[in-house]
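Now read this:
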Amino acid sequence: MTTVPAVLTADPGSTDILAVANSPVVWLFALAVFAVIFVQTAIYVRAARRTAPAIGMTRKDVTGAFRAGAVASIGPSLAVVLVAIALLALFGTPAVLVRIGLIGSAATETASAGIAAQSLDASLGGDSYTQSVFLVAFIAMTLSGAMWMLATLILTPILKRGGSRLEKVNPAIMAIIPTAALLGAFSMLTVGELGKSSAHVVTVLISAGTMTLCLVLARQLRAHWLKEWALGFSILVALFAAFFVHSPVA
């Protein structure tokens, strides 16, 4: 006896969202997305190893760069995991895995799903959150994430051509602009958090202090590994600080 995928036997009026959200068909597409991500990762790593000698990077430098990137991703990944856990009950495991595996913003796409649900006089996770509402919300969230990828696909070649022209005019400009862009982006994110509460201010200051201390110690002790772990340490210390600030010990 063959089983029919839950998507084909769904009841639009049912509030059993996970019966549809965790169906084999959705899992199949989610795994396909991750397969593409793994292939892309392998291609990028291979390309980086091949290109490294041409720009004067040794194999040790490349390995150190990969290690630094892996360590630096630990802190942000914790935040992603927390968001994913919160979204599991609303969208199911496959949809959440796709959401965290692609470029985009969980806040933006969840807001898109919420607006889609409101257009049907329903709310995410409420009594009116039926399978049909989930379908509309899921489509809205998917389209929201897809636009991020489409914009990247279209704008990247355009920005690359612009960067090549600027580099011909003044090579130093292309060394300054990316750094300035990163500083500006992270500064705006930080400024946006400072005004929320005193706890946010304390957390930001502790995080900045931890990062500064790590960089100073790395220079004084000539500990290159500490530079690689500095971001991870600062994020972890800030997380503990935020916990104690919001939940002071009696």
User: Anything to note?
Assistant: Residues 1-9 have pLDDT under 50 and may be disordered. The first helix runs from residue 17 to 21. DSSP finds nine helices and no strands in the chain.
